[in-house]
Design goal:
By secondary structure, this protein is an alpha+beta fold. It has two helices and eleven strands; from the N terminus they run H-E-E-E-E-E-E-E-E-E-E-E-H. The strands form two sheets. Strands 2, 4, 6, 7, 9, 10 and 11 form a seven-stranded mixed β-sheet that branches. Strands 1-3-8-5 form a four-stranded antiparallel β-sheet, with no helix packed on it.
């Protein structure tokens, strides 16, 4: 069981695995080496559901970008300038981008190249031997209400906050009432026993 857990955790994974529509996010590509030879190259295809614009430099690695006809970054390739990632190492490659307003999930196709020239394609479906990493995208919160002149006064957010606050503040009140009722019942029971 532990062996299988170790194998499963050795996949190329993109974090976070949950995000929100329209958010600006830092994505981290975690790459473990599963062979006795080092990982020397990692390629990530940038899905249509996210627009990646920035990359964090990583010591010992360089990166190259490919853009589509519209100028959007379509893929990034990190290549080791030194020895790469050995069998006991993993690397984290960071990039930043905006999640699409209509996105529901982001499937990251990754290609991991070893020093011996072999390539592992992390592009399969969930549950397969070599699954693509998936980031689930949650819907945006409901928009705040606008008044008749079209100005956003945050009514929806304020109302939600008020409801939440009211709900939270009633709990101690209910607990106090319950304690008071139990106390009164205890007193009545005690007095009835003394009367007998």
């Amino acid at each position: 069981m532990l062996l299988f857990a170790g194998i499963a955790s050795a996949h190329v994974v993109v974090y976070p695995q949950q995000t929100m529509q329209g958010s600006y996010e830092k994505f981290t590509v975690r790459v473990p080496t599963e062979k006795e030879v080092p990982t020397v190259k990692v390629e990530i295809k940038i899905p249509a559901e996210v627009a990646v614009s920035r990359f964090e430099p990583m010591a010992g690695w360089k990166y190259e970008l490919t853009k589509d006809s519209a100028g959007k970054i379509a893929s990034v390739v990190w290549t080791a300038t030194t020895d790469g990632l050995s069998s006991t190492e993993f690397g984290e490659f960071n990039m930043q981008g905006k999640v699409g307003d209509q996105a529901t999930s982001i499937s990251w196709k990754a290609y991991q190249t070893y020093k011996d020239g072999s390539v592992v394609e992390w592009i399969g479906a969930a549950g397969s031997d070599k699954p693509a990493s998936v980031t689930n995208v949650n819907p945006k919160p409901a928009a705040a209400k606008m008044d008749s002149d079209g100005h956003d006064h945050g009514g929806g957010a304020v109302a939600a906050a008020h409801d939440e606050d009211t709900g939270n503040s009633k709990l101690p009140l209910y607990l106090s009432i319950a304690a008071l009722v139990l106390g009164v019942l205890s007193l009545i029971t005690s007095l009835l026993k003394k009367g007998k």
